[in-house]
Amino acid sequence: MAFVQNLPFICILLSLFTGPLSSILSGKMTKKLNLVMITAVGIMSAMVLAFTVKSGEAYTYMMGHFPAPWGNEIRVGVLEALLATVFSVIMLLCIVGGSKEREEELESTKQNLYYIMANLLFCSLLALIYTNDIFTAYVFVEINTISACGLIMIRQNGRTIEASMRYMIMSLLGSGLLLLGICFLYDLTGHLLMSNIKEQVQILAATGEYQIPLLVCITLMTVGLAIKSALYPFHTWLPDAYGYSTMSSSAILSSLVSKGYIILLIKIYYRVIGIDVIRASKITNVLFVFGLVGMVMGSVNAIKENNIRRMIAYSSVAQIGYIYMGLGLGSEIGVIASVFHILSHAASKALLFVAASGITRASGKNKDFASLTGAGFRNRLAGIAFTIGSLSMVGFPTFAGFISKFWFAQAAFENANHTKTMLALIVLIISTVLNALYFMKTVIRIYTPAPALAKEKNYQNITVRGQAPKSFAMICFVAMNFMLGMCSDPIMKLIQSGLEMFG
Amino acid sequence: MGIWILLPIILPIVTGMYLLISSFLKHLKSTESELKTADGSLKPVVLLTLIVSVAAAFYASWTGDKSITLFYLMKDIPICFKVDAVAALFVTVVSIVWLLVGFYAFPYMSHEGEEKRYFGFYLVVYGVLMGLNFSGNLVTLYLFYELMTVTSMPMVLHNGSREAIMAALKYLFYSMCGAYMALFGIFVLNKYCDTLAFVAGGSLNTVLAQGNETIILIAVMAMLIGFGVKAGMLPLHAWLPAAHPVAPAPASAVLSSIIVKGGVLAIVRVVYYVVGADVIRGTWVQYAWLILSLLTVFMGSMLAYREPVFKKRLAYSTVSQVSYILFGLAVLTPAGITGALLHVVFHAFIKCTLFLTAGIFIFQCGKSRVDELEGIGKCMPKTLWCYTFAALALIGIPPASGFISKWYLAQGAFDSQIGILGWGGIVVLLLSALLTAGYLLPITMKGFFTEKKTEELEFEKGEPPMAMLMPLMILAFLAMILGVLPSGMIDYAAQIAATIL
Amino acid sequence: MSRKLSNNEYQKTRGFRFRQWFDGTKDPYLGEVEMKPVRDLSTATQITSEKKSDKKMFLELVYDMKHNTQVKLFRRLYNAFAVLFCLLLVAMLLAAVSNLPLIGVADKPVNNEVSQRYIENGLQETGSVNIVTGMILDYRAFDTLGESHVLFAATCTVLILLRVDKKGRKDKIAEQAMNDRLKEPKNDKVLQGVAKILVPPIIIFGVYVILFGHLGPGGGFSGGAIIGAGLILYLEAFGFAKTERFFKESTYKKTSLGALTCYCLCKSYSFYTGANHIHSIIPLGTPGMILSSGLILILNICVGIVVAGTMYTFYAMFRKGGY
Amino acid sequence: MMNLTNLLANYGEAAAMILFGIGFTNLLLQNNLIKKIIGLNIMDTAVYLFLALKGYIAGRQAPIVVDGVQSVEAYINPIPSGLVLTGIVVSVSVSALMLSLTIRLYRRYHTLNFDEITTMIKKEEK
């Protein structure tokens, strides 16, 4: 067995171990440690990606001395490695980009706690991506929830604490349902390991036993994960949480955490239940409908919003709607489009958050549009970055957003059901127009010159060097968006092959 | 060889970007006095770039067909450019107008301020338009169409006043709506066409299309309406009268003479080069399109007739005139297409002239309402004569150019099998021609023949500087002369029509 | 701006914080000052009036169903929806349960080769007499690893929320903490007497439960909880002053760090060797002896330390936001 | 659909499900934060009850090897017990987190009613 195959496990253990280690170090040290750790994990994941692409097949890795159904194991394929790589890059950039805010908004004595939370969150994301055991997945979902809550409320004011209360309530409902679904599944199949569960489920589906419990536990797990990943009607905690927590937390949460749950859901569909059973169970239609509603309502709420951070938060509600719409189409290509959209949205939304914070810093940290006027001139790089992010969100060609929209449309066409096709296309266009409305409004606002305002409120200009980490993050994110938009083909191929070896 | 196409696209964009960035840097040390001061290096840079790229554009478009593929945006969807007859026609018109208006704009913008930003965007938009005209497939076209919207918007909100911003938002939102309806169409066609590249006569895959006619027709209709936004077609025309008056005169001149033609070009490409005319002939789509365009023609003229503000009146007349073109395209007959293409050229020159005249009126004596212009001919006769020629051409009085194109439009309406709509169309065209006379000529009348004595008129300045008058005269002259000896152009347009039908 | 410093620099200074705390400005957007500042008696009346106004506001916005129709409508809808949802859920679950395999019978999918191997070879493979311990600490150790980190994460969140930083803002809770200290120890003879008798056996029992986790019922979690309970009882009886002689935050951090590190290292060793099919050098020992079953004993001790520390930390934090 | 004899036989699981519903409803409907947390705990407990019943087999011992008997017939299924152990730890940490959040909210807004807290926050906005 090649040494490279150990790397995923080493990644998980490393990120897990840096959590406790950070607890005794000082804030600065923990930051360094955290950055080093994430970089190392990114490099290792890239190596794993290269290895899996070369070998062209997924492999399983025993966690312990005991083979599959008895011990835990993790399973590594192209898709997992790809996601791990991209996630670590985005995590790194988010942490780098938000360092200044953290220094100002967090108490000096609680800096290191932030990084503990970040490390544990990252670890849980990796574990969710790699694990092949559904109960392990549950445990790490809980870690994910708790540490995400920590990231929200570490900047302490009424809004964030209330928001994290809402968040906890919602996600506890979700994880309760998820746990119950897992128990049902265990009861029906007698296994906790995904592949074995799939075999058993196939047998059950063939013999037609336990149909109702099977359906129920599919529903439970789907609803649970949908609640946790803030699908439309369950999004109430989201705007406050993203709007008032410190910037890097918002970026990480919106671009990674909710995606982690969605990936777990995809994993459950493909590896635990089997996609054909899912299709037969028609649960996808429910997701489809909720996704469509989310796509529209999220954008509508975003239009009504007067606080830029909350606006971006609402737009990510809409984007999650896109992803669920893709899943709901139920076709292979739909899922591919969703996975690609997970990547592209992660890139562009994190960019938007970083850029927005840059803009608000140039406007005396006010987030309302009135005081953002002309901020594009006060903080040039942030203005440009925000524009690019908005264009990517709006689906401007040569940026990531356009490609994912294009693939969603293709997926809609692949779908046999014509009403679904038309619905998907029409809602796609409508929500795109709404996106354009509020993003372009913001862009025009930040490029309306207002020297008078700036003078009267004495807003400082922020140079590129004056915010070096943020500039670095923004440039990297812009490059990422551009890359995803320009050469989407290889990534699409990766995702495709990854999904093939996923099930 | 194909590399020549890139020059007129890249060069202006790069130069414009340079200008923008430098003006941007200037903005940072934002003391008003510094912003006001213009620097001498601007004019030579802009003119040099314009001339070089125009020359390159001519060279690229008139030395045989060529094509170039930049890179693949997605699997089998390249970003590629291609020269063909239509592209050559549009490129020529755009280049001439852009160059002349560029000359005109220098004195004008000197009192609007922010020249660097304005000319930066002016150049960028020129490059983008070149890309639009040369684009070789639908996705490239869409890309440059969006770019055109985004980059031409700052010219609208040049003086960042509140109504300017509102108008720009309106413009942006309408165009984006249209673009996304078109995008929907692109998604559909990508499924049912062999290729999104432009093939004369269309490349619809009949096997795939079997049984999906409805969705294809819906898609085509969506694209017609979507691209029709730029061309000011009926349901989504409202941005035009809002955006033109607030923009500075040179900007509104190019907006209504060139940018709107971008929509026309897109429609030509979609209908005749991707879908194919036969697909929509005789379907509800054609009739809907005809009816919409005719309604727009009539309504535009009516509104223009009632409009007191000069530039707004011209904007409404643009709405109606561009729909002449759309009508010509919609009848799907060679004569109709010929007329439409001719009208594209003529209307570009004419409407440019009219807007520049309006600009001169504002520039010299700050008069923007029609009723204030009484007796203007006494103090600036040359300008008013140019205006009058252009007006006559637009109305279509022989031998002026407008007559030719309208003649062909009418002929196209005759020999198309659209029954009553053909006749109705001709009636509407004549009616709207009368209205055109009704809303353009009074200015000439009042301008020259007024009861007031010369000393009663309160126009502080006389004729504008030569740099503004010259382009005006050239354009007016073009508008007339093309009507006097049109044979070359008619053959060219007829040839295009023959190839694409 | 009359001051020398620019606005941003000034906002970083202590003086600015102090002033903000002093006049009690708090801005939900900036959120520098979180707690309500200490108010002296002169402002008490104003506070009460504020309270009154709040009550009035609640009456209008929350409770007044008659006038505030939209609240009423929303509440009605929400409740109806929620109840409906829950009833639906319960009905669904019952329907599912009614089709599940029966309780207590041996032949159902749950009792398959997995549990069989755990029971039949567990003793030999893990060396642990207590099969459950063997399972969670050796067969499925990855879950348990995650689990102990769940505890750790929870502790950190509680620290984030409730820890009062001495050198940080000194505000209301700090005050409360002070008073709390002054009151202690509440010389409650009975409590102290009982504690004197009970605490040592409790802690010893906890240690026993941990150490015999692999031989009988018990294990790290339960034992740790017991030790934590003992510590809490001691704290209640003798107060923080005495407790801090041997248990500070640093103690918690160091012990839990040590425990988790040890845990991670052991597990990564066994994972690594297991995955690469290297024979693990850890002897399993003879089952039934206390020093047996390889790593399980060590892991139990680690878990026990973590859990005990966590329990005590929770209590101390809730009690007065510090050790 | 509803197999009643089975349901009666599985009375324990049915009870667990009803408990789960109760907890869920509490978490959803109660305005008082403490009651919400209690609801959460009820929910978790219901799941543990369910799991414990999964493992139970009539007339068998707890899975601790007594004098060397290692036949499957002797002991109940150990897996659910382990899962319950994990679940308990998770719920302990989560409720600790929720409680500390509650404490903070109470210190700041002097009330436990979630609606009141939200209205207070709205007031702060103004």
- The main sheet of chain B orders its strands as 1-2
Assembly state of the chains shown: heterotetramer
Q: What is the count of DSSP helices of chain B, taking H or I runs of 4+ residues?
A: 21
Largest sheet of chain A: 2 strands, antiparallel
Largest interface, with counts of residues having CB < 8 Å to the other chain, equals:
A-C, 79 and 72 residues
Proportion in β-strands of chain B = under 5%
User: Which segments of chain A are poorly predicted (pLDDT under 50) over 5 or more consecutive residues?
Assistant: none
List low-confidence stretches of chain B.
none
> How much strand content do the residues of chain A show?
under 5%
List keywords for this structure.
heterotetramer, C: 323 residues, mainly alpha, 12 helices, D: 126 residues, 5 helices, 0% strand
Can you describe this structure?
The complex is a heterotetramer of chains A (503), B (501), C (323) and D (126). By secondary structure, chain A is an all-alpha fold. Chain A contains 23 helices and 2 strands. Chain A starts with 6 loop residues before the first helix and ends with a helix. Chain C has a domain at 113-320. The N and C termini of chain D lie far apart (54 Å). Chain D has a single domain (4-125), classed as Helix Hairpins. Chain D has helices at residues 4-9, 11-29, 33-55, 78-109, 114-125. Chain D is mostly helical and 126 residues long. In chain D, helix 2 (11-29) packs antiparallel against helix 3 and helix 3 (33-55) runs antiparallel to helix 4 (78-109).
